[in-house]
Amino acid sequence: MLKQLEDAFGVRLVKRSHSGVALNKHGRVAQEVLHVHLASLDQLSHSLRNQEVPPLRIGVNLVVGIDLLPLICVELNLYEPENPMRLIASEGAEPAMIDALLAGKIDCYIGRLDWGTVPVDVRARLRSEPIVKVGGAVICSVGHPLLEQSRVEPHQLIQHPWALPDPASFLNATLETAFRLNGLLPPKPVVTSNYHIAFNQFRHAKLLSVVPEPSIDMPERLGFIQHLKVEGFELGYDNMEFIVLEDQQGLPAIETMRAAAKAAVRQLQGVKGYQQPNSAPNISPAASPTS
Q: What distance in Å separates the CA atoms of residue 140 and residue 230, rounded to the nearest whole number?
């Protein structure tokens, strides 16, 4: 069997020595790629045995789950009773979603990715298309003292406690940049957590935080938090990308999901917190690490 595989691929997959046999670099690449395809075949086999249409498996980050994912479901007509299509959505942090993509557990990932943290060999296997940009917003607890001010300026922000996301997150980075552009050192948080946890903390303490702007609508309507406008304090926007494995580009399920995601983004035009992406489609992160 091994010789047949080596003949088919045209390269040796193992190195032999007096101590035994081990995969060489070609063998390790083949193992990774075959692992993905075997996982997809396993999913297909399960669906066929149960006479089901294979589900679309998508990974998303927290921000995409707010508006974009529900709109994707609408674009796919998933709520129509006669539609046999199904979608399995997994939500998680960037590293977990990329691991799931490489393991064949999801077909695509929609969310942000810090390409600088992705190993070069992994980056070479991924293809990305920016589809929308999401902005940040400063929020505060209901009844926060700063809401009594007719005008809030950046220097006033450092006089109050903050709940902030992971120091390595884009939100934290854009907040620090906004402070430094105003000649101020960024505050040290009293609490570090994701923004879903922070929303609950705001019910019990007078806090400030930075969150994705699309995430504030429902908590604000429920009376958990308020959007705080600050003079001369601009927060940046970050790309949400459609990411797939290079060797799975063009597959019908992938292209169906891509088309639905793009159509969903068009419905978000003009909605607060969203902008058009600033990079060309079908970029190759392997050739452009800063994409």
A: 11
Parallel/antiparallel/unpaired status of strands 126-141 and 191-192 = unpaired
C-alpha dist (Å) from residue 41 to 38, 163, 202, 246, 271: 5, 44, 46, 18, 40
- Contacting residues for 159 by C-beta, under 8 A, at least 6 apart: none
Give the residue carrying structure tokens 């609408």. Answer: 74
On whether the CB atoms of residues 31 and 23 are closer than 8 A, the answer is yes
Identify the band that residue 47 occupies on the pLDDT scale cut at 50, 70 and 90. Answer: very low
Closest CA to 242 of 267, 266, 277: 277
- Quick: pLDDT tens for 138-153: 999 999 999 999 999 9
User: Which amino acid type is present at position 168?
Assistant: A
State both tokens at 252.
């019908």
d(CA 256, CA 267): 17
d(CA 77, CA 71) in angstroms, rounded, equals 10
Give the Cβ contact number of residue 265 at 10 Å. 21
> If DSSP codes are grouped into helix, strand and coil, which group holds residue 225?
strand
What is the radius of gyration, based on Cα positions, of the chain? 23
The span from the CA of 195 to the CA of 208, in Å, is: 11
The stretch 226-244 carries a mean pLDDT of: 94
